[in-house]
Each structure stands twice: as structure tokens, then as C-alpha cells.
Amino acid sequence: MKRQSYDGVAVAVPVSVPYVRYSIETAHWWIARALKQLCDRAGIAHGDLDGLSVSSFTLHPDTGVGLTQHLGLTPRWLDHIPMGGASAVVALRRAARAVQAGDADIVACVAGDTNHVDSFRKLLGSFSRFAQDASYPYGFGGPNAAFALLTDHYMRSFGATREQFGSICVDQRKNALGYPNAIMKKPLTTDQYMNARAISDPLHLFDCVMPVAGAEAFLVTREDIAKDLGVPFARTLSTIERHNAFPDDPVQLRGGWAMDVEEFWAMSGCTPRDMDVVQTYDDYPVIVAMQVEDLGFCDKGEGAAFLSTRDTTANGDFPHNTCGGQLSAGQAGAAGGYLGFVEALRQVTGQSLGLQVMNAKRALVAGFGMINFDRGLCSGAVVLEGA
Amino acid sequence: MSVLDSLTAEIASGGVRIVDLTHDLTPDFPVMVLPPEFGQCQPFRMEEVSRYDARGPAWYWNNISMSEHAGTHFDAPAHWVSGRQLPNGTVDSLPLDKLIAPVCVLDFSAESAADRDFLLTRAHVEAWEGDHGTIAPGHWVLLRTDWYKLVGTNAYLGMEKDGAHSPGPDADAIRFLVEERGIIGFGTETVGTDAGQGAHLSPPYPAHYILHGAGRYGLQCLANLDELPPKGATLICPPLKIRDGSGSPLRVLALVPGG
Amino acid sequence: MTDPIAAPPRKDPQQRTRSPLLPPVPRSRAALLMSAAAARGELHLQGCLSCGARIYPPRDACPTCLSVRLAWQKVPDRGHVIAETTVRTTTDAYFRERTPWRVGTVRLDIGPVLMTHLHGDVETPGPCRVRAYLDKSGNAVLMALPEQETPNMADDPELRELTATPKHRRVLVTDGRTAVGQATAHALSDAGASIVFIGVATPWLPFDGQDTLTAIPNAQIVPLDLTDATSVRELAGEIGGKTDILINTADHVRPGGILSRQGLTTTRDEFEINVFGLQRLAQHFGHGMVGRGADGVNSAVALVDILPVYALANWSAWGAHSASAAARHSVLQCLRGEMRAGGVRVMSIFTGPVDDDWRQPLPPPKVAPSAVAQAVVHALENGTEESFVGDIAKDVLARWQVDPKTLERELQG
């Protein structure tokens, strides 16, 4: 059965609430700020929202349900997406179908998290059952250790070097310096990257994101409504989503994109070369490499080499993570899964807050997340085209 | 002034001295040891209930447990098979006039020091009487061996592969004291009224057998007999009033004339 | 190469003692079954009884066929390390003060992929064998060890956290009057204990083997009567702060059941020593041990109790003794939870009838005191929570695991 297109769906109003390292506020507070900006810039009252999709790690004991009463919303469509770095892609997929079916007209998709001084430790302590049973008792390195094992295996398998991974981080930092909301404000050199403090070998300090507080949001609606509101928008050319792909791979060297990549490009009517800007989910450089491989930009095992030989700044030959990605902008919990999407939406609608990729029309956004124990289970991707 | 008022006045002024013949009742005070197939003599044990703490803020007290025959203790006639049917044979039913009575102290400490298995014989008693006069009826007789000084050492029980080794009386000596001298009871510094090797005498454990068979009493684990005169002191030794008790730990005191 | 652990210097009396912390505690119920096997020194993994798939991490349904008929089974331990990392920073307080800490991804030859601790002598990539140990929180963790024994293998810092090895530690053996106590004292001295305190009650009563005690290297005879709270308290006052391993070898055993005995004085003696004696030891030594659970090379690590396997089911010919063993077993279970806060392991050494004077009329097989002693050392060196010594104890365990009720009938004869 051929998948239905996303005709008639508009993605609009990219909102980023500036990140801070630590916040005493709650996730509710951050999400409210994002929603308010979303509604103000769309020129609507928040009561006009009839759909809400929420992603957050620190909303407990509430879910999206609690937020409806907390924030005075009465939606006829509600979704809570606990998929970490894949949240934006999945939120779009759900909201788009709701809008196409007429189940909702104006859907706010929002991700937000606070970061108290003990948020990260507490989050890790109860992240998933498999992590509790089979990962954290072993050094409690958190995702850093799990991805270190992954990176170690990847490097042994394909001969990738730390220098190659470092170039990804260095370029992203250059992009971050142009992005006003980035938490990292200083340039990063290759030497600094190589000599930084080891976190969990082979990962060093600049391979790891900094947890922060923040929120991101966008609107999903019908094209005619977007035009009525007078907001620039993008169309969705294709999406994919996959969870627990390749469970028999002893160590994760490929993500779910590899299962559905052909369908992805076929549905979009594009090839990888047609992308003007690429936003990957960058919790760690090795996952960035994996995404460019699995989404068809190069062969398996070549991802780090590929990116290290490109200029991935906003003005380069392969604009990638143009606001710095999480590695430089910071990871605001589940909002980390929205960062790339919202940036891509800005780029293809000409609304960049930092460096604007010239004539950016088509963007690839990939999402990845939820390291349950030893591998990230969620993956997704979307091609956006500025209208 | 009555006799009693005179007595208490003399005590108060030091004219009459009180000598404590009792060991401290402590968990490490040795007790007699029986063959393992038999029930054993439970040593003294103390469990603190509270000590001005959360268990009881303003008071200190303990629960205690022990065999009737632990520490300085009294043996009643019912304790031995030979005395089992005698009337007034348990500690709750003893005639009280036997418990405050004159006492003769027979010093055989030198002989005991030379021979840990020293046996007191009738001849020894008669020799003592030659020096100190006949033992009149209605006396307690205590055998001084200075064994109390050995408490805390292996020599107190002298337990070896062939049994215990400590001094005591032979059958004839006890029979003589009971039948011909009318003693109230016999007391020693060792764990038993009998010698450590008493099982091998005839009858076995003759002090127990003969004393209790005749309705007389025993005192054991006495201390400080070396502070008592051979004659002239008064022994005070009421055991606890345990219903049907065979004996009990007690405070044994001696009143000694002349400060 | 593992460097041998040096004997620790004398403790600096001016320094605060490091508080014991624990590795992550929570586990799912399914994972507890791995802990149960690890408690007995075995590596068990889940298998699907419907389709035969081997499953890890622990779960509630088979990912291959969705059956819920899952069972834990002993599995071959060979595998290969295919990735490794050295954790240098962590938000967890326990591991934070123990970094750098090496962990790896191991693929077992039978299939499942595991995250494990890595012994320093294991290389990546490289072969290994995987063992399940209990960590200081009392939960099972997996460790990849070299295929063959390597020099000073037990001194690997990660492995030492998972075991209670007596090397360089100070040990109290509570009853030196018996052959089991004497053999245990010998064995602990041979195993590298720096001091073996040997408790002796009623010193004014001689006992067999008395002279051999003073000949044990590093031994110190100390007064200890488990029936006397004062004795236990005073000894704890003197040596409690340097008791790293406490081994309770005391057991008062007499034949007879409930109806077959007259009165309760013998039974009281059995409970006084076997149950209350253990509690007195725990009350007076336990807090000190818990407080010193992370106190350097010679930290307090284990309270070991040797008890009859008839704790599991009553052998009516020795019924009162069995009852005291059952109570003793329950006391140990309680202590196990209470002493966990210090990461101090409470270990049970279950034995069948020991070859001593009271068991003289029993036919073989009986357990030699030296076998008990070796079992104690083995349990300490492997961190084994429950050990079963000798043929009878293993037999009783096997029958108990099938159904305790049938075992009850079998022991009633």
C-alpha cells in the first residue's frame, strides 16, 4: 500500500525559547513560554489551538493531560510523545495526519524541559527498565558510557578517528557562534577537542551535549489556515519512523533509517543531493555519522570521514546543524529532539535567527533517541520544503 | 539495751565487723560443668533493659537469669536425690533459725595449696578440734582452702581430661560432722561442697549425698574465709525464697567480733 | 597485568572514615532472579521455554515469540568483548569515587549481548568468561574475566568490590573451641588475613586443639562468650573497629526434637547460642562494620555464618537444633537487608552434619571441619551469598528447590 502524501499540511511558526544552564522553573513554565510565543507570533489566542502534542522528560507527575487544565486548553486532539530526540519528527507525523483527517485544525507541537541541579541525575536513575537492570549498575555512565561503547565499536569496525569526529564538533561550534540562543559562546579548536577531559573513553568533553533548560515549538495546520494567518510555512515531502530496528545487531552501527531509506526518498521525490540543509540529531558525533550513512549520503562506516571532508558551516558546501546542534546549543531534554526541526523550518522559510543558508528550500531533519539500554530505539526523518 | 540494739550499735561503731563471703555475680564467674549429655548449670547472665535512654529515660535496670546453683550459692536438701523426700527441703521452706547461726572455719589452705585434690578426713577434723575445741551442735562448718583466690584462673575448677581437681571432704568426714557434730550445713570456696574428683568417692559426691540426705545444707563459692576466726563468728545465709527451689545465689555475710 | 594489592598502612586516626555508598539499587522483579542465581555463585540467563530463545536484559515476555513462559537457566560462560569504555565521569556518587571504571559490551558464545564490568586483564577485542556476582547493593552484576586465571587476579579493583576476599583483612572467628572454628582460623590465616582473632569462651575449661590455636600465624586469642552480652560488647569495644570479616562458627548441637525432649533447657541453650548469640554479635559488631564498609583496602566486607542446612526444613531427629537453624536463617536474612547500607555482605554457609563428637553415631557422608573452612574462604573470595557444603547440604538444597514440602516429608523419615 502506497503511503499517503502530506498534501495540504503546513508546518509554521518556529519557536525557540532561549536556553539556560540551570533553571528553578518547571517544565510547565518552559512549555507555557513556548506556547505563548507560538500563539503570539501566529496571531491567535491559545484557546484557538484545538490540538496539542507535548514532549517532555520533566513534566512528571503530569503528562499532556495535566497541561491542558494547567494551561487552559481544551483540545480535541492530544498527544504525548516520549521519544526523546525523535519527538519532533514523530509529532509532525501525528499532527499532520490529524489535520489531514480533520480531527484537528491548529496543532501546537511543543517540547520543553527544565534543568534543576539534580535533574539529570534523577532522570538517569529512572530512565528505562533495561537501563535500570542492565546498564546503570555498570559504572552508571549514563548515555555517555553507552554511546562510548558504541563509538568504540564503530571506531574499531570502520577505522574512524577522533579527529574526524572532532571536525563535526568544530564546525557545529562555528555555526553556534552565529546562533543567539546557543549555550556555548566560545570557538572550539581541534586541539581543544582532542585534548579535552575524557568523559568515558573514547568520548571526551566536547563529544557530549550539555543538559540545559529550554523549549521549542512549531505549528501544524492546513495550508489555507496558514495563509489566513499570514505566516510563512513549509510543506512535508516525506517522513519515516522506526523503533527498535535491527534488534539482532550486537552493537548498534545502523539506525532505523536504514530500514526505510528507499521509501523515504521515493516518497519525497528527492535524492540526498537535493537537500539544501541537513539537521541531524547530534547527541554524539558517532550518531551524526550514522545518520548521514543510513540516509544515503555515503557508505556505511564513511560518515565521519564524509563530514570531516565537507564544510558543514551555514555557508559551506554541506550546511549541517546550522544553529550548532545540541553539541553547541545545548540539550534541553526532549526539546533537543525539536532543535534541528525548528532550525530547519527557520532555514527553509527564511527566518534564521543566526546564519541563513542562502536559498535554502529543502531540508532533511533526522531524529534519534531513547537509549533504552545499549542502543537508541527511536528514529525518524522528514523532508521539509519551504513554500 | 536489748541484744539486738547492742548488736546494731556494735556494727555501727565497728565493734562487730561484717565480712562479705560472697563473690560478685558476673557472667564470667565459673560454674560447675556436667557431662554434656546432662542439663548444664546456666551461668549468670544479665541483659540491660534500659539505661537512662530511649528504652527508659529515667531508669536503669536489667533482666537476670542463672541457674539456682550459679555463683556464691546455697544448696537445699531437695537438691540431691538423697534428700528428695525430706520435709522443709526446699529453699522456701527452710527453718529460718538455721540461716543465722554460729560458724566454725576449718583452715586447710596450706594442705590444699600442696595438693589440689586434698581430701578433708575425719582425722583432719579431729585434729582441728584438738586446736580449737569441739564443734558444738548447731554450727555451720566452712572449709577454708583459699581457693577463692583462684577464681578467674583454670586452677579454680582444675578441669582436665579426667575431670575437675579441687579440694573437698571425704565421706567419713561429712558423716562425722553430720551425725556426730550436728552441723547445720557445710560450706566451701569451690564450686561444690564435694571435691573435684568427688564422683570417684563412695558414695559419689559424698558431701551432697550425706548432707542433703540428712536434711542439711550446703554453701559454695564462698570468698574471704581467710578473714574469719576459727570460731566465734556468726554466719548469715538466707537463700532466695523460690517456691520449690533447690537452691539459690545469695549474699553470705559473717559477723566477726572485735573490729 | 593486575598489580598485587599492597598491605594497607595503619589507619590515620585524624581522618574521617569514608561513608559507604551503594551502586544503583533498583531492579525489576524479573532481574531479581538473576540475583538469586548469583547469590549462589551461578550465571543464569533467561530462556524462552516455548521457542528456546536466550534473552537478555531480563523481561516478562519473549521478544521472539511473545510467550510468557520464561525460565532462568544456567548458561555457558564463554564470550567475547566487542567494545569497551572507561567511565571517568558520572553523576552516581558510588561510581564517581571509584573512577576510572572499565565496562564493556560482551557477546556470549550462546548469543546474548551483555554490558559487563571488565577485569583489567581482559582485552578488547578478546575472549572472556562471564560471571555473575552480587554488587554491594546485593544485586547481580556481570563481569568479564580472563579465560584463565591470571596472576593477582583477585586484586583487580573492580573485582574486589564484588567479593569479600580476606587478603589483608582482619578476621574474627567467633568460636575457637571447636574443630570447625580451628580449621576456619587456619584457613583464613592461610588465605592472607592480616589478623585472625579467635574467640574462646570459658577459658577455664580446656578443649581439644587448644594448643594449635596459638600456633596459627597472625592469630590472637580473645575472650568471647556469645551467651553473654557483656562479653560480646566488651570484645566489640576492643576490636570492633578492626573487624573486617566476622565468621560465626558457633553452633550448639544436640540430638532430639520437640516431643522427644523433656523440658526446654537444652533447646534454650541451642537458641541462646545459635540464634541469640548471632544477634548479639550483629548488634555489637554490626554498626561498626556497616560504618566501615568503604574504609579502604581493609574495609569491613562480610559477616559469615555457618549454619545447618536443616534451616530449610526440619530434620526431626535433630528437631530442636533444626528449629534453631531456621530461626538463625531468618535472622541472617534480616541482617542481610540491614547491613546492606554499608555494602557488608551477610553470607550463609549451609552444611550437612559436621563430623564431630555429637554426630558420631551418624553414618557418612559427614562434612569435615576442613571442608567447612574451605567453603568459608571460597565464599569470601567469590562473594557468594549462600554456599552449600558437602553432599548432604547440596542434596537438601536440590530437594528444597523442587518443593520444600516434599523435603519436609523426606526429613521426617
CATH domain class of the largest domain in chain C: Alpha Beta
Number of strands of chain C: 15
Proportion in β-strands of chain B: 15-25%
Mean of the pLDDT scores of chain C?
A: 96
What is the strand tally of chain B?
13
Q: Number of domains in the coordinates of chain B?
A: 1
Order of helices and strands of chain B: HEEEEEHEHEEHEHEEEE
Which word captures the global form of chain C?
Answer: globular
- Strand neighbour order, sheet with most strands of chain C: 11-10-9-12-13-14-15
Gross morphology of chain B is globular
What's the CATH superfamily of chain B, by name? Putative cyclase
Rg over CA atoms of chain C: 22 Å
What is the name of the CATH architecture of the largest domain in chain C? 3-Layer(aba) Sandwich
Rg of chain B is 19 Å
Task: Indicate the low-confidence ranges of chain C by residue numbers.
Answer: none
Into how many domains do the coordinates of chain C divide?
2
* Overall helicity of chain B: 10-25%
* CATH class call of chain B: Alpha Beta
What features would you describe in this structure?
The complex is a heterotrimer of chains A (387), B (259) and C (413). Chain A has 387 residues and is α/β, with parallel strands linked by helices. Chain A has two domains: 9-118 and 213-232, Peroxisomal Thiolase, Chain A, domain 1; 139-208 and 234-386, Thiolase/Chalcone synthase (Peroxisomal Thiolase, Chain A, domain 1), CATH 3.40.47.10. Chain A contains 14 helices and eleven strands. In chain A, the strands form two sheets. Chain A has a nine-stranded mixed sheet with strand order 3-2-4-7-1-8-11-10-9, with helices on both faces. A two-stranded antiparallel sheet of chain A has the order 5-6. By secondary structure, chain B is α/β, with parallel strands linked by helices. Chain B has a single domain, classed as 3-Layer(bba) Sandwich (Glucose Oxidase, domain 1), CATH 3.50.30.50. Chain B has a nine-stranded mixed sheet with strand order 1-13-11-5-7-9-10-4-12. The longest helix of chain B is centred in the first third of the chain and has 11 residues, at 3-13. Chain B starts with a helix and ends with a strand. Chain C contains eleven helices and 15 strands. In chain C, strand 1 (44-48) and strand 2 (54-55) form a beta hairpin. Chain C has two domains: 29-158, OB fold (Dihydrolipoamide Acetyltransferase, E2P), CATH 2.40.50; 170-412, NAD(P)-binding Rossmann-like Domain (Rossmann fold), CATH 3.40.50. Chain C starts with 28 loop residues before the first helix and ends with a helix. Chain C is α/β, with parallel strands linked by helices and 413 residues long. In chain C, the strands form three sheets. Chain C has a seven-stranded parallel sheet with strand order 11-10-9-12-13-14-15, sandwiched between helices. Chain C has a five-stranded mixed β-barrel with strand order 4-5-6-8-7. In chain C, strands 2-1-3 form a three-stranded antiparallel sheet, covered by helices on one side. The chains are: A alpha/beta (387), B alpha/beta (259), C alpha/beta (413). Chains in contact: A-C, B-C.
